[in-house]
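Key result, reporting period 2: structure in, sequence out.
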């Protein structure tokens, strides 16, 4: 689909920005394990510390996969699934006190928007991507 030229370069920059931010978010899970585990426990997640570590790993690996153009369908679907589940479980703005609604709604909407981007990448993941390392399952 995106073979080269200006379109290929723009798509590479988009992948680097999108995947890079998600991978950075994953690294933050490892740097802030205790704080995030406490928040996850407060939200009622089972095994909060393990949940933080696993979600951090998913974000790092899938984010890097998007940036590199490796396994794009798998990476896109994994990210979209995580982001939608995270939006509903961690950013439940409808169930928090009024003074927390705006922060939680911002987190919720950010995750939903990022999930949309991840699904778009998954949708075109079977195409040839310019400047990618190329391995794919589909």
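The corresponding designed sequence is given below.
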């Amino acid at each position: 689909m995106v073979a080269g030229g200006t379109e290929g370069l723009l798509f590479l920059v988009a992948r680097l920005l999108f995947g890079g931010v998600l991978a950075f978010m994953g690294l933050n899970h490892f740097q802030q394990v205790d704080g995030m585990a406490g928040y996850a426990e407060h939200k009622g997640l089972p095994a909060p510390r393990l949940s933080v570590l696993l979600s951090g790993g998913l974000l790092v690996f899938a984010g890097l996969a998007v940036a590199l153009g490796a396994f794009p369908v798998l990476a896109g679907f994994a990210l979209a699934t995580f982001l939608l589940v995270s939006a509903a479980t961690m950013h439940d703005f409808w169930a928090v006190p009024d003074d927390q609604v705006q922060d939680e709604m911002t987190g919720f909407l950010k995750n939903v928007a990022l999930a949309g981007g991840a699904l778009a990448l998954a949708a075109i993941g079977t195409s040839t991507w310019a400047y990618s390392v190329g391995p794919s399952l589909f």
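The mean pLDDT is 94. The chain has one domain: 5-123. This case is discussed further under Risks and Mitigation.
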